[in-house]
Amino acid sequence: MRNAGARHELDRISSFPPARSAPTAVPDDSVELDATSQLRVERYALRHPGVDLTHQRTKEARRSRFRREGDVVVHAAGGLAYEKPLVAAQAHSGVQLVPLKHDEFGEPNDDWHVQWPDDDDDDSAVVSPRRDDPAGSVTQRAGYEWSRFPGRADDGSTPGLQLARSVPRAAWTPRERRFDTADRTARTAALGLLPVANASSATVNGVEVFSGILRLSRIGERLRLRTLGVIEWNDDDLDFARQRFPGVLATADVLAREYRRWLALPEVMFVIACAPCRIVATPGRQLGVGDADAYVTTDATSDVADHFRSPFVIGENHANIALLRDGEVLHAMDARHARSGRDRSPIVPDAPLGVEMVLDTGLAEIRHRIALAYVDRRVLAMIGPSPRLRIICATSQCIADILDDPLDVPPFLFVDGRLRCRHVTLPLSRERPTVAAVLTFGEQGGAVELGVRALRTDDSRRPIDARLCVVTELDADGTSARLFVDDEHLWLPGRWPVARLFVMEHNINVHDVRGVATATTDFGLPPVYEDKQLILVGGRARRFTTDELFRLGGDSPGLSDLRQHTTMSESAKRRHAGKSLSVNLGVAMMTRLRAQIDAFLDVRDGGTPEFDARAESKLASKCVRLVAATAVVVVFLRLVATGARVLVNVETSGFPGVERSEVEVTHRNVIDVVNPLLDAFTDATGLRPPALRADWSPSASHIHVVACPLDDDYWASNAHPQMSWLTLEEIRQLDQSLHDTAAVALACCTSLQAQR
To answer: Helix, strand, coil % (nearest 5) of the chain?
Structure first.
């Protein structure tokens, strides 16, 4: 940073931090700012690239460190709400900071007060235009080359930022390493976070329900899985969807079924839906199917898939969906999809209800989740059961791998209390977090502050009941508080006088950074909030930074997208980190979906399936010629807009049928004879077509005909070696008797349709 009164360019503010002891280039056509305004502008530009810098500059004043010439460090005073001395590690510049009051997320409630040391040095700055940049928009600095471009970087890094190095990597700081695009891309690729579709893969369309910040859709983008519609109740998430995917259709309420108005959508091949897990999750009431909102979890997704006639539905959910009360919620979901002709696949042997449970994805956060995939039975008959998920991870991360530079951690994230360390035995488990210490928060009978657990008392200081209440809010004058009963997941109405609260000690586990973290959520109570835990760093207990929360799930690009495409508050961004699934799990799910769609499209377009459980294959060996003495044949007809097509065994010139020496010519008996053929068709497709007796065949009176009409929902295989779906004209050219019999069946179906 330059000294007070320096001139700065507002239109192209470079990202911080610059290199150590490096001069900062200052164009001549810039606007003069004082030091305080400069700090606000730089901080706001960092959080909101491309946003008008005249709006709410001070609201983004959260970063705890900025660098200037001579490695001068400015340590922000965020979070200093109490009369505590400022601890500014490496703050040797003489900069004086006046402590300010901040809210829970470090937002200042007052102006910044910064006193800069005298600095009259006239550091020279050189701006060297590159050959491909004659306008001179590239600033050359010692060891760095920063370039700003419109749009979003392909690797999900800071938008419009590229970096070239000229100093040894060993000399870079941890924060500088994270700005290295090439290194970050290589690391991401090693973790399997950058899937790419095959060159031959066609772009297919889908819809995402309960989308959040569209983590699965963003992964699918690289796999040519295009999201055309988004259903999400959160307004911030809808705004993000519209900005991140321009032209996407978006609606808020899945229960209002406004998606039915999307009439111009092309074929929707898949539906993504990570349904809310609140009805089964451990922090909730766990009411299961008895919850008032159970329909949203159990049925809403299937309703969407039914409307768009999508053969593939994928998602994930809390592990309790298969465990709570013998898996009643999963049973309800399976039954709803089954009514629409979709089955859950794969079914894992020896797992509760056959679920595909995922625990460790190689990232620093452990989430007990199950992957859900429902596939149309007709598609399963063509491509076979879904394969097991393949989680690709070159190396396993721990908490220490995702931590920010200590100087970048705002002070308000540290939680004070009595810290008792525990002995930790190596190696640490990856199945659960390792408790390195226990923090006792609050003092028995002590002062009431935000986040303490307290008993309500009467005027004589006797407890009213045994319920521990969490102080979630304090009035400005500190005389009353809002309370939440954590054990009952219940907000108490109104406000309670602080004088009638008795504070109890509360123990919080502090996790070892050499191990893994437990799952974060989108809701939490002070003092840990949505983090759900504390970590032990440098002998102190603290929460995660926003960047760290997103790195836990492997979604740093998602945070970059949020900062670029939304104006969400910092608290809203933090909550989004816990609203979605692990990126490694998402990659595995979307990669499998892409492979299944490719297999289905290949078979549908005439390819030979590796797995052959098609109805055509099951019926091929059960065909009879019309010269049989007495037979009952089944004429399967696809009644489509382009005309009727009939299933014929081309090799034998026959229909599926059963030879009989004697058949009593009654409607019921004729239908009963061909029930095994209909059963075979149903086993393969999940469909049970109507069976209509079509009287007699004009070419062979000893042939009894059963017509089975199918609508266009049936995906017929056009490349079976024996069975073909032919038009009447094609059948006539093959065999006249086949043509006459098929015509009788078609006439029967048409006449009944006309009578409706």
So the answer is: 30, 25, 50
Q: What tokens were used for 482? A: 């809002």
Across 264-320, the runs of DSSP E, i.e. the strands, are 268-273, 312-318
452: its two tokens? 């303490």
CB 301 within 8 Å of CB 275 = yes
Please list, residue by residue across 599-631, b when 16 or more beta carbons sit within 10 angstroms of its beta carbon and e when fewer do: bbebbbeeeebeebbbbbbbbbebbbbbebeeb
* Helix axis angle, 300-308 to 328-339, nearest 10°: 20
Rounded Cα gap, residues 19 and 21, in angstroms: 6
Tally the C-alpha atoms within 13 A of residue 17's C-alpha that lie toward its C-beta.
26
For residue 316, list its beta bridge partners.
371
Strand partners, 31: 8
Check: CB of residue 250 under 8 Å from CB of residue 229: yes
| Residue whose pair of structure tokens reads 């502050």 in the numeric block | 449
Assess contact for 259 and 271: CB atoms under 8 A.
no
Can you give the residue ranges of every domain in the chain? 1-138, 204-389+582-604, 399-568, 615-755
DSSP at 403:
P
Residue 639 CB partners (closer than 8 Å, separation 6+): 709, 710, 711, 712, 749
Tokens found for residue 191: 């973790």
79-94 as b/e: b if 16+ CB within 10 A: bbbeeeeeebeebebe
Q: Report the alpha-carbon distance of residue 716 to residue 34 in Å, rounded.
A: 73
Tell me the C-alpha distance between 252 and 189, whole Å. 35
Averaged pLDDT of the chain: 76
116-148 pLDDT per residue, tens: 333 333 333 333 333 333 333 333 322 222 222
Q: Provide φ and ψ at 110, rounded to 5°.
A: -145, 180
- For the domain 204-389+582-604, what is the CATH superfamily, name and number? Vaccinia Virus protein VP39 (3.40.50.150)
User: Residue 749, by phi and psi: left (phi above 0), alpha (psi -120 to 50) or beta?
Assistant: alpha
Chain segment 337-380, per-residue pLDDT in tens: 999 999 999 998 888 999 999 988 999 999 889 999 999 998 98
Residue with tokens 């509360």: 506
From 696, 615, 676, select the one nearest 649 (Cα to Cα). 615
- In this prediction, residue 311 has a pLDDT band, given cuts at 50, 70 and 90, of very high
Whether 371 contacts 390, CB under 8 Å: no
In 3-state terms, what secondary structure has residue 697?
coil
Q: E strand or H helix at 471, and its extent?
A: strand 469-474
Q: List all residues 6 or more positions away from 520 whose beta carbon is below 8 Å from its beta carbon.
A: 365, 530, 531, 532, 533, 544, 549, 552, 577, 578
Ranked by mean pLDDT, the top range of 118-127, 282-291, 474-483 is 474-483
pLDDT at residue 746 is higher than 50: yes
Long-range contacts of 528-531 (CB under 8 A, 24+ apart): 528/415, 528/451, 529/104, 529/574, 530/574, 530/575, 530/577, 530/578
The strand pair at 496-497 and 480-485 is best described as antiparallel
CATH number of 615-755: 3.90.79
DSSP characters over 183-214: HHHHHHHHTT------TTPPPEEEEEES-TTT
538: left (phi over 0), alpha (psi -120 to 50) or beta: left
Instruction: Output the CA torsion sign for 662, 664, 666, 667.
Output: negative
- 3-state SS class at 503: strand
pTM recorded for the entire structure: 0.65
Which residues are registered as beta bridge partners of 231? 209, 251
Contacts of 303 (CB under 8 A, 6+ apart): 254, 257
Answer for the pair 633, 705: CB distance below 8 angstroms, yes or no: yes
